[in-house]
Model the fold of this input.
Amino acid sequence: MSNISDFALEKALLSVIKNKDKVAYNPEFNRTEETYNPTLQIDWITAKIPFFVSGKLNGGNIINTTPDGEIEYTIDKRLPVTGSYDSRLSVRTSEVLPGTNDTYLIELSGNPVKWFQGHNIFGSDDLPNLIYETVLKLSNILDLPQPEEYLSAIRKGIFTLSRVDITAMYSLQTRSDVYSWLNHAEKTCRTRSGTAMSKGTTVYMNKTSQRWNVVMYSKGQELEKHSLPRELQGGSLETYADNKLRVELRLKQKELAKIGLSNGKPWLALDVWPLFKDYVGRVEMTEHSIRPENLLEIPKFARTTYRLWLLGDDVRQYVSKAKFYKDRKALLEMGIDISVPKPVDNENINVVPLKRVLELKPAGIPEWAYGTNLVFEPRKLCN
Done:
């Protein structure tokens, strides 16, 4: 086995980073006293990690040839590695680190939380220890034990990141309320780069950005499209997720480099919650209310319902279920959502950061999940 120091590993690793950080770690993301969302988790990681292996590691090759049959180039395919409940991560070796013969960077891509616990409804936001635990399990599955100096380097944050997804969950009363909230967000959310885009009930902010974007969707609906592993179906997880709004922040390579988070070291001391709220807070939601002189624009059958909502009442206490949904459909077309409380601000248009809207209903990890295989909590081994 190769014998290489932490310093040599770090020097070699930094020499092959294509997008070096342009600024130092931004201190405004340090820990604050804000209320924490327990469902915050690292939902996806794409990373390059030093890994001891005697040869290339891949899932086959894609070979491109000229019309004469000469090979122009070869691309290594990613190797899928199965974890808990058949969930998978993909890996492949990248370049050999300079000054070494048997130390590769491996490209690791996937959802480590799901890889450990079979689902990503809730999980851990501890990125460094998730990566470290992933390397330990990966080396065991592949029967490629790693020298201590390599593991020590990873514990110190000697790896690079080109994508990190961070998610959080919020509770509404019903699945219908989640759809209603998303409908409202589609019509009223914006960032400096533009307005919302949607596909079905999923709402995207900065969808085409090469730096970062925010995605909002119904977690209950997603589980209907992408079922849980068979062993986890038909239980409490689906019930828990049914009325949940999922908000997902995707940080890409250019943005991670810009804010000094494209290598593992800053993540050792990072509180992910302020980082998540900073970006989600860049999405603004415009809350509309109708001026009295425009009341006649509301369909006659929905005016009484609208007046009740204006008074701050829960409309569902006064009208039948059928009438509630009929009136809500009509009012949504005017930018009014009677399934959520009327804004306190009486201005005609009130623009607020989305993070303030979402402070209202953070979801928690259910007590029944702790102490089971449904929650993977990585050990605190990185420093």
Notes: The first helix runs from residue 6 to 14.
